[in-house]
Amino acid sequence: MSGAFEIRGGKRLSGEITPQGAKNEALQILCAVLLTEEEVRITNIPDIKDVNKLIEILQDFNVKVTKNGKGDYTFKADEVNFDYIKSKEFKKDGAKLRGSVMILGPMLARFGEAYLPTPGGDKIGRRRLDTHFQGFVELGAEFSYDEEEAFYSLTAKELNGKFILLEEASVTGTANIVMAAVLAKGKTRIYNAACEPYLQQLCKMLNRMGANITGIGSNLLSIEGVDKLHGTEHTMLPDMVEIGSWIGLAAMTKSEITIKNVNWNQLGVIPNTFRKLGIELEQRGDDIYIPSQENYKVQKFIDGSILTVSDAPWPGFTPDLLSIILVVATQAKGSVLIHQKMFESRLFFVDKLIDMGAQIILCDPHRATVIGMNQETPLRGTTMVSPDIRAGNALLIAALSAEGKSVIQNIEQIDRGYENIDERLRAIGADIRRIDS
Fold first, then answer.
1. Residues within the annotated binding site?
2. 23, 52, 244 from 260: Cα distances, Å
């Protein structure tokens, strides 16, 4: 049963909110437990559908999973049931979750073969897997694709280090190739590697397990293959997409909010991008404090031209927060051009904001111009459907700032990425409840 959120907006919120563990990091880190037969303990794992689904898939592989406490698990992959990867069940389970693609690298490295159904996930445009497979082929794997079964196969007698130039700085692609290369023979160098904090976390964890990776945080990774990896402990970063979302929420609802334990030095350009929209925020220890603001004025470029916010590979602005920036811009003073370069249908939720009274021109599938209303005309509550995880959260923030009642349907999309979001918002004063849709 897919439920809905009923929200009565226009209320000021106040208090502290703590971000969950990073969803995108969790999907990489959990796949890495397959690289060793020793115990790996991971803490700060978010309790969300996509992550729980991946933990279930690991259990189906006969990985021993022990829950030590909230968000704290121990994994031991010493008796992996490799037959499961060829089973009908895995075809069904793996297809539901895009993160399952990162099982390929560890499986190929440790067992010499790997299989994957065409993965699911968000409908935000084409998300090619070519980068992953090109990397595996460069390391010496044979690749085939069964179109009728929609099933990918990889086999390798042995993997050998290679210089690999990625055609795109794919985060999951880089993670997958790194996990394959750590057990390959010889030296692998990956150029145009993604360097997101989540990927840095993965590389540091692999090094603690005995891997030899240098260049972490840069776009040129060097990996000296080793014979085997051992166990380790790892704590995940807070989710930067949640952190950005709560900054936007504070601005839209004129609320005074403190976001706790944000790991400030891993946030990159996120705080400054919100500051460009005129939002005041300050660092207090490792927290972000956002004072209550009646309005916020968009900064123009030095030559007076309109502010453009666009996504880019790290350390550029993450595409996962562009939908939040777009919503926040609807109540700013001034205009903003939002340019979504990576995905061609991430902006298709703007019609819902226009229904709520926002002034937005959708120029094409990648660009939208937002004419801010300076908090003078609040958005109106309405009924809408969440199209994907990130747009769902952006619509939630719009609804919390809007006058009147809003209903957001298909909230399974929001639950896939955000842990107990309604309870945590109620704790800072939001009027939100779950209803049957």
1. 23-24, 98, 320, 342
2. 17, 24, 12
